[in-house]
Amino acid sequence: MLGVKRGAILLSMLVIGGAAIAQEIGHAIWQERLLILIAPSAEDPAVARQKQALRDAADAVAERRLRVIELYAEPEGSDVTQLPQERQRAIRQSLGVAVGDRELILLGLDGGIKRRASLATPLREILQQIDGMPMRQQEIEDRRRAGLPVTDP
Predict the structure, then answer these.
(1) Sheet strands side by side (includes 33-39)
(2) Residues 16-54: pLDDT tens digits?
(3) CA-CA distances (angstroms) from residue 98 to 12, 39, 146?
(4) Residue 109: CA atoms inside 13 Å, Cβ hemisphere, count?
(5) What angle do CA 108, 111, 115 make, to 5 degrees?
(6) d(CA 141, CA 132)
(7) Which of 60, 65, 95, 113 is most buried (most C-beta within 10 Å)?
(8) What is the CATH number of the domain that holds 72?
(9) Considering the domain boundaries, does residue 152 fall inside one?
(10) Is 55 or 1 the better-scoring residue by pLDDT?
(11) Among 128, 114, 129, residue whose Cα is nearest residue 34
């Protein structure tokens, strides 16, 4: 019940922050976990390392229903996974992220912030944290009962 309340509170904050946030993040509640990469530029070396780690662990990322959102202060160098600047500003405001910040934010299925950390945080740590979450533990158990493999972080 507490998770539902936190999700509802975050969703309310996101809706108040703008329709763009509700579209990009609000719909993910109970469907996806979100990893938000925040940097001044898409050319940031820590972003490049995270994106490579995400590609290398694509199966583990998909199994954990982890979607990545990238927020950059500079529109140059953006790629198809980056949100339009207007939406980025709204998300930054709702999460209390300054333009020059370099961090990552992990949102759980309930929409709550589970981690705010350095952009250089190893992806393995993030995946291990997700694996320790109660809803992920249930997903793991469900996969095992169904005879499906569980991908290590």
Answers:
(1) 66-72, 33-39, 103-107, 113-118
(2) 333 444 455 666 777 899 999 999 888 899 999 999 999
(3) 21, 10, 44
(4) 14
(5) 50
(6) 12
(7) 95
(8) 3.40.30.10
(9) no
(10) 55
(11) 114
